[in-house]
Structures are given as structure tokens and as C-alpha cells.
Amino acid sequence: MQIKGIESMTSQELAREVAHGGKFVIYQYAISVVILSFKQGTDIYFVRSTENAVVKGLPYTLLTLAAGWWASRSERFSVSWRCSTT
């Protein structure tokens, strides 16, 4: 798995960001095809202390709403809950 968002950072910059509230996040999304539903996780994202984790995860929320909305009720709840806690 790749960590996205730290490509140009030194180890000191990364440590400083984490100390100031930066975090590592894995977003989950669901895709449903007829009767099959798939839940997947993304690569690891580093969210700086000045960035909003919800905004970074918005594409995966929209993907779930567009392609996974007919997943079973428990799967929808699980994905929605995970998206809201990140």
C-alpha cells in the first residue's frame, strides 16, 4: 500500500505535522453490481493538520452513493459510519 500525501516531505516535516494533528486515513467505499456488493479500502492518505479529512474523502463518499446505494442496509450503514468517523 502506498501513502499518498507525503511524497515531498522529509521525516522531520512529517513528525512535525503528526505532532500538530496530522493523521493517516484509509477511506472505504462500496460498489454494488446487481446482487454483489464490494467494500474496498483506499491507499493510505496523510491528512495534514490544516486539511479536512472529510473533504479528502468526499470522492469516495460520492462513489458509494452513486455505485453502492443499493447495497444491503447493514453495508450502507457500515460504510456511512466509517466515512463519518474519519
Percent helix among the residues?
40-55%
Strand order within the widest beta sheet: 1-3-2
Q: What's the number of structural domains?
A: 1
Low-confidence stretches: 79-84
Rg of Cα set: 15 Å
> Rough shape?
elongated
Distance between the termini: 18 Å
How many β strands by DSSP?
3
Mean pLDDT: 81
Structural class: alpha+beta
Q: What proportion strand?
A: 25-35%
Largest sheet: 3 strands, mixed
Order of helices and strands: EHEEHH
Keywords:
alpha+beta; 3-stranded mixed beta sheet; disordered C terminus; 3 helices; 86 residues
Description:
- The chain has 86 residues and is α+β, with helices and mostly antiparallel strands.
- The chain has one domain (3-85).
- The chain is built from three helices and three strands; from the N terminus they run βαββαα.
- The protein has helices spanning 11-19, 53-67, 73-85; strands at residues 3-4, 23-33, 36-47.
- Strands 1-3-2 form a three-stranded mixed sheet.
- A hairpin with a 2-residue loop joins strand 2 and strand 3.
Summarize the structure.
With 86 residues, this protein is of the alpha+beta class. It has helices at 11-19, 53-67, 73-85; strands at 3-4, 23-33, 36-47.
Outline the secondary-structure elements:
Layout lengths: L2 E2 L6 H9 L3 E11 L2 E12 L5 H15 L5 H13 L1
Parallel strand pairs: 1-3
Antiparallel strand pairs: 2-3
Helix pairs in contact: 2-3
